[in-house]
């Protein structure tokens, strides 16, 4: 057979990683050896023949790989593979493949598979790696100091334990008095499971079960464990691969400790609290600049420790806040006490506490009353010094000039109120679009009563203000999540180069917009998006399910953005918000698609609610 | 052995295939490219064959023969993309038919709109061997028509075209057009149709013939 005669198949195979690394002759030989099967939902599972392992290449349809315990390992779609673990290990098939959508699958026989592994190192490496990690997070990277540490140096020893037959109430009481978030469940002196705060919430409370439930019914059985001699890095990998935060440490069949993600975080050289403490001890700009050089490393360590994106945002923002405050204090030491009360306002991402890498400044000054000439001069000097200091510490000047050093954004309470009044009561679409960051404002320095007088007034005007809310909503609907009609990703291109998915502007920014519109409609004071969503859920403005979905989507997309930037950082690439989906495992691709779907639905929700259109 | 004996034997060889359960059966997806639609005046340009063993298409034994014809490809070149000079490399209709009978012995054929392909093959076999033969095939078009007519009364034009049928089962769009790709497309469609019937281990080839 001339392979070109079966062009549709060769074309498809040729485009798949790692088949794309094969030379033409090898590729043709490979295509020629395939057999084609079709699997229908009606038969539920792909019949995997134990005596005849093969590589399954998904051409169409959707499948799900689950292990013996029914745990989901992977979701597969076009261009994904299954069956390779048995091919590589020679062990019999233990996972099951459920058919979610009917699909066409190509089968590659073991002989050809082995031949291709010999022919192409990339091919071999691809499947070995996929086997080793089942290709979960490819974007893990190693912070240097973490690779040498042993688990024993970070874990808490003498772990809290409880008997297999104890009740969850007893477990909860023990956890409370020991002030820990997990307890190891012991049966016959051996580790049988682990019970965490999350298990108590998800498997007991959320299910409406009683405190008399035996722990063994709520715990995670056969948890992943490591020995105390393992590398911290291994622990991090294991935790992130399995999305767990607690790792029992077992030596010679005996539970000797627990390692939590917080322990790992604490083990980092750039602890956020230390860094903030250091900032507060510095007495001049030069030393503040030196200290702020640690901020990128802090971000890296937080990302490697798999901290929640929300936590990372809060931690980084608290560093910016501390730096800003220190700059204000130091400059006041030079300039003398301020002639009146004032607040330093942070807008946009700093306001929302979701700063990440390469943030620019968005700030303003709120004055208690109209300054005379001398006072005006004082604040001009102060703000210029602080903004310059921030710039030199790595927070570059705002390209849109929204900064306290710009007289336009150095206003009295009355002037700020008038400014907001104009945006709210005579909203012009374009002006409003630029104004949206001002509605995410927070006071970094100054008397809270002054800031409250501004915020209370603003919220009183936005609350239930139909015209304003419709305008805000229409603005936020200018962008939509990057999903095509068939739920495939829509990639942005720059000329010939595929830039990928803009996780910020087509993901998190849209969720920020949605949360902002709702919060302003209800007069909610929170500005952090996660807190806004929580407050909206608690006041029944968004129903529980939608709120949790939206919060999860926000966290997930932000997490992807951060780990992508972590990857870019460790590979010395320019940091950007663009993610190339082909670098993702199929499971992560699926989750990302689901997250964007949630954003899409939430957009439809605000459209209906605030503009009364579909 | 006379040619007449060989066609009889060929016919007999197909009989056991009819009794098989689909998941155990041995079938052959076939597609022809022709110069036109009339078996008596038009000629076969190429034949594509892909075996379907135990419910799976075997690309390792996929084969295609281009056939030398009398005269020019003419109009049909615009459909099949086969041009005269490519056919120079082809085989004679005699050897193509011998090859076809040899490869498909003992296997039931599968084709989309099988009467057309079978018609051409039967005429060609008669010309080559001097013997009339009745070929048997599962017709994926007829299967689809039956299935759709159970749900609706009237079928719109184009509903039963190979591409349209495949789209209903979520099968990929194949842009390339040759006998082998069409045989592949038809074979995949049959797999999808059988999967939609439910239990793979129950459906027999006889039922599929009957349904078509």
Automatic annotation (TrEMBL), chain A:
Q: Provide the species name.
A: Shewanella atlantica
Limits of the CBS domain: 155-211, 219-275
Q: Which InterPro entries does UniProt cross-reference here?
A: CBS_dom, CBS_dom_sf, CBS_domain-containing, cNMP-bd_dom, cNMP-bd_dom_sf, DUF294_put_nucleoTrafse_sb-bd, GlnD_Uridyltrans_N, RmlC-like_jellyroll
MF terms in GO: [protein-PII] uridylyltransferase activity
Which residues are in the Cyclic nucleotide-binding domain?
18-134
The record's listing under CDD domains reads: CAP_ED, CBS_pair_CAP-ED_NT_Pol-beta-like_DUF294_assoc, NT_GlnE_GlnD_like
Please identify the protein, giving its name as recorded: Cyclic nucleotide-binding/CBS domain-containing protein
PANTHER family given for it? CBS DOMAIN AND CYCLIC NUCLEOTIDE-REGULATED NUCLEOTIDYLTRANSFERASE, CBS DOMAIN-CONTAINING PROTEIN CBSX2, CHLOROPLASTIC
């Amino acid at each position: 057979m001339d392979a070109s005669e079966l062009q549709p198949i060769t074309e498809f195979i040729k485009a798949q990683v790692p088949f794309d690394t094969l030379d033409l002759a090898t590729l043709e030989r490979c295509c020629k050896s395939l057999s084609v099967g079709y699997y229908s939902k009606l038969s539920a599972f792909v019949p995997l023949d134990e005596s005849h392992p093969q590589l399954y290449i998904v051409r169409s349809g959707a499948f799900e790989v689950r292990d013996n315990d029914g745990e989901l390992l992977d979701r597969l779609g076009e261009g994904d593979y299954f069956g390779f673990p048995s091919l590589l290990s020679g062990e019999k098939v233990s996972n099951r493949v459920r058919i979610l959508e009917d699909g066409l699958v190509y089968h590659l026989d073991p002989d050809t598979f082995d031949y291709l592994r010999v022919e192409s190192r990339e091919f071999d490496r691809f499947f070995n790696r996929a086997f080793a990690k089942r290709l979960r997070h490819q974007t893990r990277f190693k912070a240097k100091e973490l690779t040498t540490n042993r688990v024993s140096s970070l874990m808490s020893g003498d772990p809290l334990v409880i008997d297999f037959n104890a009740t969850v109430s007893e477990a909860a009481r023990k956890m409370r008095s020991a002030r820990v978030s997990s307890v190891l469940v012991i049966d016959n002196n051996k580790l049988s499971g682990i019970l965490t705060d999350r298990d108590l919430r998800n498997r007991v409370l959320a299910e409406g079960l009683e405190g008399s439930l035996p722990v063994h019914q709520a715990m995670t059985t056969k948890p992943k464990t490591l020995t105390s001699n393992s590398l911290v890095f291994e622990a991090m990998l294991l935790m992130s691969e399995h999305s767990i935060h607690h790792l029992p440490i077992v030596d010679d069949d005996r539970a000797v400790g627990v390692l939590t993600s917080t322990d790992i975080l604490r083990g980092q050289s750039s602890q956020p609290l230390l860094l903030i403490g250091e900032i507060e001890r510095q007495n001049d700009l030069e030393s503040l600049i030196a200290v702020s050089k640690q901020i990128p490393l802090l971000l890296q360590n937080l990302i490697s420790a798999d901290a929640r994106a929300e936590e990372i945002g809060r931690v980084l923002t608290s560093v910016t806040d501390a730096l800003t405050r220190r700059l204000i204090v130091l400059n006041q030491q030079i300039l003398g006490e301020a002639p009146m009360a004032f607040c330093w306002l942070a807008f946009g991402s700093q306001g929302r506490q979701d700063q990440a890498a390469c943030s620019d400044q968005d700030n303003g000054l709120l004055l208690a009353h109209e300054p005379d000439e001398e006072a005006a001069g004082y604040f001009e000097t102060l703000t210029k010094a602080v903004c310059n200091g921030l710039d030199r510490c790595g927070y570059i000047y705002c390209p849109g000039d929204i900064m306290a050093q710009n007289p336009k954004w150095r206003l009295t309470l009355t002037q700020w109120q008038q400014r907001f009044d104009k945006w709210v009561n005579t909203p012009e679409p374009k002006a409003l679009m630029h104004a949206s960051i001002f509605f995410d404002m927070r006071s970094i320095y100054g008397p809270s009563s002054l800031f409250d007088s501004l915020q209370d007034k603003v919220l009183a005007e936005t609350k239930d203000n139909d015209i304003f809310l419709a305008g805000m909503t229409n603005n936020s609907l200018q962008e939509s999540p990057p999903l095509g009609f068939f739920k495939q990703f829509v990639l942005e291109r720059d000329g010939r180069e595929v830039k990928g998915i803009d996780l910020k502007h087509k993901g998190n920014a849209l969720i920020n917009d949605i949360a902002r519109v709702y919060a302003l409609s209800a007069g909610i004071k929170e500005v952090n998006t996660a807190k806004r969503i929580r407050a909206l859920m608690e006041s029944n403005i968004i129903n529980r399910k939608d709120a949790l979905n939206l919060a999860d989507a926000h966290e997930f997309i932000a997490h992807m953005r951060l780990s992508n930037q972590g990857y870019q950082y460790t590979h010395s690439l320019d940091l950007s918000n663009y993610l190339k989906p082909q670098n993702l495992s199929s499971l992560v691709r699926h989750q990302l698609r689901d997250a964007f779907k949630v954003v899409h639905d939430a957009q439809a929700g605000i459209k209906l609610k605030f503009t009364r259109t579909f | 052995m006379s040619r007449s004996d060989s066609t009889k034997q060929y016919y007999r060889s197909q009989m056991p295939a009819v009794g098989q359960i689909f998941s155990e059966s041995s079938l052959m997806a076939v597609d022809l490219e022709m110069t036109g639609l009339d078996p008596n005046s038009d000629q076969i340009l190429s034949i594509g064959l892909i075996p379907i063993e135990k419910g799976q298409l075997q690309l390792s034994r996929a084969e295609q023969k281009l056939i030398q014809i009398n005269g020019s490809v003419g109009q049909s070149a615009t459909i099949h993309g086969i041009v005269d000079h490519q056919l120079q490399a082809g085989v004679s209709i005699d050897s193509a038919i011998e090859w076809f009978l040899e490869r498909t012995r003992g296997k039931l054929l599968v084709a989309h709109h099988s009467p057309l392909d079978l018609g051409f093959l039967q005429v060609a076999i008669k010309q080559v061997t001097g013997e009339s033969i009745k070929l048997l095939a599962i017709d994926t078009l007829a299967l689809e028509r039956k299935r759709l007519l159970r749900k609706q009364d009237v079928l719109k034009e184009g509903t039963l075209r190979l591409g349209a049928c495949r789209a209903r089962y979520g099968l990929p769009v194949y842009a390339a057009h040759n006998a082998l790709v069409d045989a592949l497309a038809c074979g995949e469609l049959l797999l999808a149709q059988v999967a939609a019937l439910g239990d793979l281990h129950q459906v027999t080839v006889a039922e599929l013939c009957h349904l078509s």
